[in-house]
Amino acid sequence: MVRLDSKFATERYVEWMNDPEVNLFLESGGDYSIDKLTTFLQDVEKRDMLFWAICLRENDLHIGNIKIDPVNERNGVGEYGILLGDKNHWGKGFAKEASKSVMEYCFSDELNIRKITLGVVQDNKTALELYRKLDFVQEGLYKQHAYHNGKWCDVVRMASFRETNND
Predict the structure, then answer these.
(1) Residues 92, 34, 90, CA angle at the centre, nearest 5°?
(2) How far is CA 143 from CA 2, 64, 69, 118, 121, in A?
(3) Alpha-carbon distance 144 to 104, whole Å?
(4) Is the confidence at residue 158, as pLDDT, over 90?
(5) Which domains are delineated in the chain?
(6) Burial class for 84, CB neighbours closer than 10 Å (0-12, 13-18, 19+)
């Protein structure tokens, strides 16, 4: 994976952000232009954050993004987010592969994050299935917390923990 920056500001990426199916469960999306995307990515470049482009190995095609942000260094906790924008690559294991790679890096001694958290709309069954496969466990449920698809939805709070030996 490559750090996400303004060179990824493309019409393809804008199309993802304006595709109702892609951004159905995202907090943002639906009103993107190349200028808005470029501004967002320039802001990303200025911040010290863990944010990467997901690209295919064989041709470097940008198909999505993954991040751990914000990170609370004192407590060793980071918030996970992923977007697989290229629908031609949905259901092929790319989100799982990218997530595993990022989680391994975050749980390494280099970063020493001990817990990765996320929030997911309960109706997002595909995402919930992925997160459970990645060993995320439910820690809580926020009732009627997010407005999606014309209704108030519950948000599941989940976490994955670094394996530690506390002997």
Answers:
(1) 10
(2) 36, 29, 23, 15, 10
(3) 33
(4) yes
(5) 2-116 (3.40.630.30)
(6) buried
pLDDT digits (tens, 9 = 90+) for 19-49: 999 998 988 878 899 999 999 999 999 998 9
Cα 106 from chain centroid?
14
Residue with tokens 């994955």: 160
**Rounded distance between C-alpha atoms, residue 5 and residue 57, angstroms:** 18
Question: Encoding tokens for residue 126?
Answer: 């595909």
Q: Please state the length of the chain.
A: 167
Token pair of 149, please? 């698809």
Q: How far is CA 2 from CA 66, 113, 163, 166, in A?
A: 10, 20, 26, 34
Global pTM?
Answer: 0.92
Here the tokens at position 59 are 């041709």
% the chain with pLDDT above 90: 87
Reference 126, options 10, 25, 20, 16; nearest CA is 25
Q: What is the tens place of the pLDDT at every residue in 112-133? A: 899 999 999 999 999 999 999 9
